[in-house]
Amino acid sequence: MIQIDLQSRVPLYEQLQEQIIRLSMLGILDENQQLPSVRALAREVGVNPNTVAKAYQQLEQQGIIYTVSGRGSFVSPDVLSPVSYTHLRAHETLANL
Fold first, then answer.
1. How confident is the model at residue 57 (pLDDT cuts 50, 70, 90)?
2. How far is residue 96's CA from residue 42's CA, in Å, rounded to a whole number?
């Protein structure tokens, strides 16, 4: 589901953020759907758990996901907000330079 490019100049945590936003906007990840745990996603994509934790922290600060203590991280109901869409477009533009 989530794939990263280890050869890209875009930092791994930003690639993870972009993938989660894109999957949410495409409806593959639903509102309030639980995301994989930090360790599970790190294992799945082959990165350090700290990388996934940083991506999740950034996404939470931006309101893309929310965390319930002891339960995990979930896709925010506000993921389709204009701010999220603008954030995604800016990253896509930078990645294409």
1. very high
2. 25
Q: What is the dihedral of CA 19, 51, 14, 83, to 10 degrees?
A: 80
β-bridge partners, 66: 74
Q: Return the closest-CA partner of residue 81 out of 55, 62, 58, 60.
A: 62
3-class SS at 57? helix
Q: What is the pTM of this model?
A: 0.80
Q: Which tokens sit at 14? A: 């930003």
Measured in whole angstroms, the distance separating CA 46 from the mean position of its chain's CA atoms is 15
CA distance 56 to 50: 10
Asked whether the beta carbons of 48 and 4 are under 8 A apart, the reply is no
CB 47 within 8 A of CB 17: no
> DSSP secondary-structure letter at 28?
S
Return the residue matching tokens 């593959």. Answer: 28
